[in-house]
Write a structure and sequence with these properties.
The protein is an alpha/beta fold.
Amino acid sequence: MTSSSRQQVKILDCTLRDGGYYTSWDFDSQLVQDYLQAMAALNVGYVEVGFRSLQNSGFKGAFAYSTDAFLQSLTIPSELNHKIGVMVNGYELSDPPTQRHVLERLFLPKSESPVSLVRIACHIHELESCLPATHWLHEQGYRVGVNIMQVSDCSPEKISGLAKQVADYPVDVLYFADSMGSLQAEQTQKIVDALRENWAGELGIHTHDNMCMALGNTLSAVESGVTWVDCTVTGMGRGPGNLQTEYAVLALEKHLDCEASNPTKLLGLIREHFSSLKNQYGWGTNPYYYLAGEYGIHPSYVQEMLADRRYSEEDILAVLEHLKIEGGKKFNLGTLEAARHFYSGLPRGQWNPKSEIENREVLILGTGPGVSKYRQALEAFVSKHRPFVIALNTQQNIDENLIDVRAACHPVRLLADCQEHRKLSQPLVTPASMLPEDVKQELKGKELLDFGISVDTDVFEFNDYFCILPSSLVLAYALAIATSGHASRILLAGFDGYDADDPRRKEIDRLFQLYAMAPNSLEVLAITPTRYEIPVQSVYAYEIKI
């Protein structure tokens, strides 16, 4: 065994602080009471109850501020005396001229506060400017921790240099966080070794579970000499979550810095409170978080996409592939929205839809249940009136012989459907010359009609060989094909629509509004039931002359 066998490990549970990202730091009072009792029974080293902050934008619950007055209103078990901690985000302390003023507003002397431990969470670029705050906190009587985030991509020399900076200040424990959830055991050991070159004090680790490695990396860190370990009940925390407290206390039992640890109340806490919360908010790893960890992408990108029903499975995968190339270590909502649309640069294509569509009605077949339900009427309509029929993706709920072309523009959806497309007889309209090479290879041998695409916010533009669209939705692409082809009008079937509270409903309605306002747009008419805000007629009425 290494030094971990000679040093006892402190568990720091930060459930209310990290879990607050889901609940806006607003927790049920009974849950809080049961939680504190469970932590007392576990005899944890510290309970980090929340943030200490001056930020006040939007409603956040009490644990976003964890004021002394609020903490004194809680019934904190005596076993947790001198074990309460709070965290301050480094950006609130990184301005040297205002740092002392901020600290004085945030903290009373330790003798007047229930808090014993203050941790400062710093990005690497904030570390130098935040470190002087440790002098003030130490003078007030607090134990001080510094958490350095996103160190996994740093060289050993860089990491060692960061430790040297910290060594000049009164810091009790130096933490590193696996912010992207991308560390492996060997990397974890190398980071510990690099920190140890210039840091002789206690070390801590905060792991994320993107790749199901939170426990493994923690154990590896402990074997390398780390003595402080972060965890949360059921792993509650942003995205894939953290090391689970229930696993940590079992796996680290022989290392724990306490006389006895009783998990009974913890298991009851999970049953009574956290199982339902986990079902409600859905933290925990999945294949998307795994890929984010593998690619070094901030897990908040995945969390935001999973919470937004506009993002299909292929959307999420495509965004992750995009961020893998473009970089996604720092979360930004604008980057996320741009990545969703995939295509960038000048559009290009080689097929002009006028050759097939000019002066004809175009019928676009969606993937809603309306196509199957009204199949007989739709087939009769197509056979009688001979519109140009565009089926979206691999939709097969109508006689294949009545479909003229298929349209698809989503790279990941295309990749998933390549085998099916090769079996289907119809030509495929797609931005062929703009597709990734792996998709082109998978479609080799398929007849492709190359119609280019570009995405620009709130823009519909129709050209002979390409279009500019407000989004990369295949519906927008099909509308553009019909319009660039100078169709007489556009009919829709199988666009049943999403429920009113589904954000995709508003997105599609907005798409139709933008199309209607675009120069050269055509009449759009649904002939099967739809919830969208477009005119509707009945496919059955076309059996008589209208």
